[in-house]
Write a structure and sequence with these properties.
The complex is a heterotrimer of chains A (299), B (437) and C (349). By secondary structure, chain A is mainly α. Helix content of chain A is 73%, strand content 4%. Chain A contains eleven helices and four strands. Chain A has a two-stranded antiparallel ribbon. Chain A has a two-stranded antiparallel ribbon with strand order 2-3. Chain A is globular and about 60 Å long. Chain B has 15 helices and 14 strands. Chain B has a seven-stranded mixed β-sheet. A five-stranded parallel β-sheet of chain B has the order 2-1-3-4-5, with helices on both faces. A two-stranded antiparallel sheet of chain B has the order 11-12. In chain B, strand 6 (217-223), helix 9 (227-242) and strand 7 (246-253) form a beta-alpha-beta unit. Helices cover 73% and strands 1% of the residues of chain C. Chain C has helices at 2-26, 33-59, 67-92, 98-125, 127-130, 133-152, 172-191, 193-203, 205-210, 215-241, 251-264, 269-285, 293-307, 318-332, and strands at residues 163-164, 243-244. Chain C is globular. Chain C starts with a helix and ends in a 17-residue tail after the last helix. Classes of the chains: A mainly alpha (299), B alpha/beta (437), C mainly alpha (349). At the A-B interface, helix 1, helix 4, helix 7 and helix 10 of A face helix 1, strand 7, helix 10, helix 11 and helix 12 of B.
């Protein structure tokens, strides 16, 4: 029982990272109907920005938490800029082209970031510095570290903030309008280009946050770390119903829990398959994902 | 939500489309002017872009031709070509880099003293990124394109196992510096190694766990993706059981994993007094960290896959008091080794890598043994070199005296090292004991 | 009669080429011959993969990103047939010369691979009834990954350590025979009523259904044929490299095949061939630049897609023009009424 609860915690902390990355997939898909395969690599970039920033910034402020917050904020900013650049120079020129073209550009971008990353950062794993000194929290037989708690709290806070932004702010409303119908939104005077760019920036910032939060817990980072995480987060987004914010969070948590349970009680080799197995089963019964709305085909 | 991928999602496109569709037309049949309609995948593009693509294609082709020219330019020398394939990048990158450093040192030393058969040796190095399939590709390339007479490589057994059939089929001798899985040299009579094998290494660690550490209940955490890890785990389990110990649980991970908390939680529930982790350093470092986070404080044990300065950087103080078996100890007082360590430090001080790890020493020995075989064969023909290699007896290398047995494996002692790391990630291995076969 | 003559002449031409290629590249004067030979073989295998994927993705419009999964199924199935049953088969046909025995083993392995992948195609084809567009794409991706993980857990085929010890049975002749077969099959399909039905489904599924096309049947058919060829390509791949590892069959390989057909020109056979050749040769050509190679490659990919999204050949199809001319000739003889050119998918470019 004790170990089951521990696995539950492990699963939730893994799932919350998937959820953060999945949010970016879902938001971009919502406005552009584009599977942005480069999103996982933005997550990697976030971790690397954090790595270099914390080398510069660590110890500059009196509090460790302030250090960490600063590192996270700056690398979120850096990734937001990367997201903007990607949108402006790779996706916007082909927005009028077919979605396949965009998809291939997404794949190309992903390859570009991965390989440029291997060249610039070096292909070898790097050790992420300890931003927050570790201390153990004992809850009965459960073992938690303060890092895990901080990571979880930060992830949840970011999700709540995003939710407030999308459902309570004017820009968020515009974003929802673009996602609902881009042409109609344009006719209503919404600057769709700006909204799309903003979506990319926001999604990329969330991915960066995910990258840093993961690295605080698991300090090994490498230029290909975004490939599998990106794919799984994407699966999480689809699982919950792509284009749906709550769906992404739900999908991320389901995936995280399922993976931990399979690795803990089954065989770790099936870990990568379980994500897709759940996905296929759910899509067969609910073709638009758990919380997605079934699209009615218009004739 | 789930519009077909090909549907035009451009603002005007879909608006026009939807208006037309609502007007009741079936697009394909009644479109008055099909040539004007943008295609579902490929809306019309401007002519200017054709020019650009032609330019791009031309650039590609000229690049291709330029490459071939460059390739054929450096072929006409009289050097003896040797291929080294190794993981210069990737999750086991220090293995390949260290081996390459050792090989470079050996080759320079040989060339400085007049080369082999009056010719100079030249190493062509290829990166396999630590992946078996890449190892196979680059080994093929080295043999068929560069026409090397012998191959050096790999450290990781899975990569050696992928490339060995190529060497065997092409009848090119291959010397693995550090692959310890028995299957590697079983591929064929062209495959050699200069290190001990895992049945021995598993025995050494089982003995150490039973006799020195007095462990009774050990958990095993193996890397299911690596031949090395699976093999070594099996030999450890077998020997540890024979000595009266119990394996309380045997779980696995896959190379490239980052999160091991699930497996470690399962291990923790069984309360072992030691965990045997025969993996490679990248994962081992992360496993050690996560184990300590979960409150697992028992000793961790491993094999030569741990041997990398990166282990200290990743795992840090979590690794203090852990033990692994290795090919040599840098503290060994033998003069040949002291000279090697001094030369290595001198040569690579700039790269910040001052202490040679076992892979560097093994790479050095592998290259020396190859040159020695060429001298004894008085030929650089692959077949003659192979025959001479098989007769290697009592060669004094930096990792000890090397004799190859009838299975083309080296018979050598192993050492057990204790890891000591300070807060800054600067580590050092302390010699604990030496075990002879 | 004509058809038999055509097949026979293709076979003998390939045989002649095989002899030429072997003497020139493998035993011959060209220094890097074996290396070029390998590129030739890999290009052939990639052509088969690209042309077959083009059938589902480009022609039938069912976007699949799991082609590497079928490739893997075929490769592993065929390899285990020749690895485990190879000696028995050789014993059965012991009266043949060695080359004949090789051919017998390879043909059986090919048949097994084709059968297994056709079944797998059927399995993946069924969800395609329920799912469309992106969701279908994701499910195929998922299937590809699941297949890979399953293979990873089968110890009899080496599991995570890779499958070694596969006999080297495939060569230029077999690879390019398969290339000829896949081009002929897909080309003929395109010109048949099936091909027109595929294109109709791609253009508008509901309209196609309204016109009386059995959408389900055609979709599944496209999947099965396409995956079958991928499986046979896998068979030849495994019997060429003599070693299989699941890392060669990740979703990245699927992406690579998609890139081939997208660069060449989606829906066009020649485009797929061109894309496959380019994507095999260029990375090798850039090996000299080592670390910059993949960066150049990905940048080029992005630039090509931005400046020429319809691919290098676009929908311009030599075959199509040829087909149209043949149809015209036939109609001039008064046999067949002229229909619209079969591959009229493309007006773009």
């Amino acid at each position: 029982m004790e170990s089951f609860l521990q696995q539950l915690i492990n699963g939730i902390s893994l799932g919350s990272i998937y959820a953060l990355v999945a949010l970016g997939y879902t938001m971009v898909y919502g406005v552009l109907r584009l599977i942005n395969f480069a999103h996982g690599d933005v997550y990697m970039l976030g971790a690397y920005f954090g790595f270099y920033l914390s080398r510069i910034l660590q110890g500059r402020t009196p509090y460790h938490l302030l250090d960490a917050a600063l590192v996270m904020f700056l690398s979120m900013l850096g990734c937001a800029i990367c997201g903007l650049l990607m949108e402006r120079f790779a996706y916007r020129p082909v927005r009028r082209a077919s979605r396949l073209t965009m998809l291939i550009i997404a794949i190309g971008l992903s390859l570009l970031i991965e390989n440029a990353g291997q060249l610039i950062f070096g292909a070898n794993p790097k050790f992420f510095p300890q931003l927050i000194p570790e201390s153990h929290i004992k809850l009965g037989g459960l073992m938690l570290t303060n890092q895990q708690v901080i990571v979880l709290l930060t992830a949840v806070t970011l999700m709540i903030l995003l939710n407030l932004f999308i459902y309570r702010s004017r820009t968020g409303k515009a974003m929802r309008a673009v996602s609902f119908n881009m042409d109609a939104a344009k006719l209503m005077g919404i600057d769709t280009d700006r909204i799309i760019a903003l979506t990319f920036a926001l999604g990329s910032a969330l991915a960066a946050a995910g990258g840093i939060l993961v690295s605080i817990n698991i300090p090994g980072i490498d230029p290909l770390m975004g490939v599998m995480t990106g794919l799984k987060a994407f699966v999480a987004a689809v699982l919950g119903g792509i284009g749906n914010i709550f769906g992404a969070v739900l999908g991320g948590l389901i995936l995280g829990l399922a993976e931990v349970m399979v690795a803990g009680y089954g065989s770790s080799t099936y870990r990568d398959a379980i994500a897709f197995l759940i996905l296929i089963v759910i899509l067969l019964f609910k073709p638009a994902g758990l919380l997605g709305k079934g699209a009615v085909e218009k004739v | 939500m789930a519009a077909p991928l090909g549907a035009p999602e451009t603002a005007e496109g879909s608006l026009k489309e939807s208006i037309r569709l609502r007007a009741g037309n079936f697009a394909n049949t009644s479109d008055p002017n099909p040539k004007q309609r943008p295609h579902m995948f490929f809306p019309n593009q401007k002519k200017r872009r054709n020019v650009v693509s032609v330019l791009l294609a031309t650039a590609f082709l000229s690049g291709l031709i330029a490459c071939n020219k460059k390739d054929s330019a450096n072929q006409s020398s009289n050097d003896i070509l040797i291929g080294h394939y190794g993981s210069l990048t990737g999750a086991t990158a220090t293995f390949g880099q260290s081996a390459q450093k050792g090989i470079e040192m050996a080759i320079d030393a040989i060339n400085a003293s007049g080369g082999v058969l009056g010719r100079k040796l030249k190493v062509i190095v290829e990166d396999d990124q630590g992946k078996p399939e890449e190892a196979q590709t680059v080994a093929t390339k080295l043999i068929s394109k560069d026409r090397v007479v012998a191959l050096l490589g790999e450290i990781a057994s899975s990569n050696s196992l992928a490339a060995a059939p190529v060497a065997q089929a092409s009848r090119i001798p291959m010397i693995s510096p550090g692959s310890t899985n028995p299957k590697v040299t079983q591929v064929g009579d062209y495959i050699f190694r200069v290190c001990f094998i895992d049945p021995f290494q598993g025995l050494v660690m089982a003995k150490f766990a039973t006799n020195t550490l007095k462990l009774k209940n050990v958990a095993v955490l193996r890397d299911i993706k690596s031949d090395y890890s699976v093999g070594l785990a099996n030999f450890f389990v077998e020997n540890f059981g024979k000595m009266g110990g119990a394996i309380v649980t045997d779980v696995s991970y896959s190379q490239g994993d980052k999160d091991f908390t699930a497996q470690l939680t399962a291990i923790k529930a069984k309360h072992p007094d030691g965990i045997f982790i025969p993996g490679y350093y990248t994962e081992v470092g992360l496993i050690a960290l996560q184990a300590r986070k979960l409150g697992i404080t028992v000793t961790l044990l491993g094999g030569d896959g741990w041997d990398s300065s990166d282990l200290w950087k990743i795992g840090g103080t979590a690794l203090n008091g852990c033990y692994y078996s290795n090919h040599y100890s840098v503290d060994d007082p033998s003069p040949i080794l002291r000279k090697f360590v001094a030369d290595f430090t001198e040569r690579y001080r700039k790269t910040g890598d001052t202490i040679p790890d076992a892979m560097a020493a093994l790479g050095y020995d592998a290259a020396l043994i190859l040159a020695d075989a060429m001298k004894r064969a008085n030929s650089a023909q692959p077949d003659s070199v192979r025959l001479a290699l098989a007769q290697t007896k009592g060669f004094m290398g930096v990792t000890g005296s090397i004799s190859l047995d009838e299975h083309r494996d080296a018979v050598k002692p192993a050492v057990v090292l204790e890891v000591k790391v300070d807060e800054k990630g600067n580590g050092r291995n302390v010699f604990k004991e030496s075990v002879s076969p | 009669m004509k058809r038999i003559f055509f097949v026979l002449s293709t076979l003998s031409l390939l045989g002649l080429l095989q002899w030429g290629v072997t003497t020139l590249l493998l035993d011959g004067p060209i220094r890097q011959g074996p290396y070029y030979y390998q590129i030739l073989i890999l290009a052939g295998i990639n052509i088969v993969l690209a042309v077959s994927l083009n059938l589902t993705n480009g022609i039938a419009g069912q976007f699949s990103i799991g082609h590497a999964g079928f490739f893997a199924v075929g490769a592993y199935m065929a390899a285990s047939v020749s690895y485990y049953a190879g000696p028995a088969i050789r014993g059965l046909v012991g009266f043949l010369p060695l080359a004949g025995q090789d051919a017998a083993v390879l043909l059986l392995a090919l048949a097994a691979a084709a059968l297994a992948t056709a079944l797998a195609g059927l399995l993946v084809g069924i969800p395609s009834l329920r799912l469309r567009g992106d969701y279908l794409a994701i499910v195929t991706l998922g299937f590809g990954e699941i297949i890979r993980v399953l293979i990873l857990n089968i110890d009899a085929v080496g599991g995570a350590r890779g499958f070694s010890g596969i006999p080297k049975l495939s060569n230029f002749f077999w690879v390019y025979l398969l290339v000829a077969a896949v081009i002929a099959t897909v080309g003929n399909l395109l010109r048949s009523s099936y091909g027109r039905a595929f294109i109709a489904i791609r253009e508008n599924e509901i309209a196609a259904q309204a016109m009386g096309i059995d959408v389900t049947r055609h979709k599944v058919l496209a999947f099965v044929i396409s995956s079958m060829f991928a499986g046979m390509a896998g068979c030849l791949f495994g019997h060429y490299t003599m070693y299989l590892h699941t890392n060669s069959f990740t979703f990245v390989k699927s992406f690579e095949i998609i890139i081939m057909i997208a660069i060449g020109g989606l829906g066009s056979i020649e485009g797929a061939v061109l894309g496959a050749v380019l994507l095999t040769v260029l990375p090798e050509a850039f090996r000299g630049f080592e670390s910059y190679r993949m960066i150049i490659y990905s940048l080029a990919l992005i630039l090509i897609m931005i400046y020429r999204p319809q691919g290098i050949l676009g929908q311009a199809s030599v075959l199509k023009r040829l087909g149209a001319r043949m149809a015209a000739r036939r109609s001039a003889q008064g046999n067949v009424p002229v229909t619209a050119p079969a591959a009229d998918g493309g007006n773009g470019g």
